[in-house]
Amino acid sequence: MTEKKGKPARICVRCLVAGRVQGVFYRASARHQAQALGLTGYAQNLHDGRVEVLACGDPGNIEQLKAWLLRGPSGARVSGVACEVIAVQEFAGFTSR
Fold it and tell me: How many CB atoms lie within 10 A of CB 3?
């Protein structure tokens, strides 16, 4: 892994988003945001009503996505976002599952 100024060139995070986040185009909107930031990974609904977002890419762009996850699309009411850094994974793009 190459590093610039002590930061890894690529990281992956897994975020669990709680609140009113299903049935409000949250996954599609997260996919659009992630693609605009050049990230790879996926967004998927979980059986407990949360959305899981796994995103990989530039750390600065990951931070921008995390900030967006706190807001979500206009119909969403996000009550919490918990993120953890995970091992780097390879994805062809960013998808909704």
Answer: 8
